[in-house]
Amino acid sequence: MRFDRDKSHDAPLERVRVWIVGFAxxxxxxxxxPSGPKTPSFRRDIxxxxxxxxxxxxxxxxxxxxxxxLDLRAPFAYRQLVGVPAEMGETRRSRVxxxxxxxxxxxxxxxxxxxxxxxxxxxxxxDSGESVKVSPLPSRFVxxxxxxxxxxxxxxx
Length: 157
Known about the structure:
The protein has 157 residues and is mostly helical.
């Protein structure tokens, strides 16, 4: 003989299970913060790139050319960039203006365009002293990393 269990007793238990699962889903959805793009870190994402590509001999490192006063080695770069007036150009931009990508001289030096008396686009070829044809900087570094960091207020992070 086959034993059939009375399923009417399972109905209240099933409703409790459905309620608990629904409540848990709502709780997770309500407390989960949307994950937007993270602000790039100056120390993690920007300083190493500047140190690697901009601090060669007679550039922006320990042994700069006489007319260079910008030190982009990691311990000095942030203080040398953010809120500091650029020393060239007619527009007298600051090197990095928090929240203002297009007002930041560094962006113009790396991506162009440069204005009158603003020097050459960086980086320079170490042999010829001319702007490189193809930038050695990581792909989309200026647009995706540097610009997002500046838009976030150029935090010292």
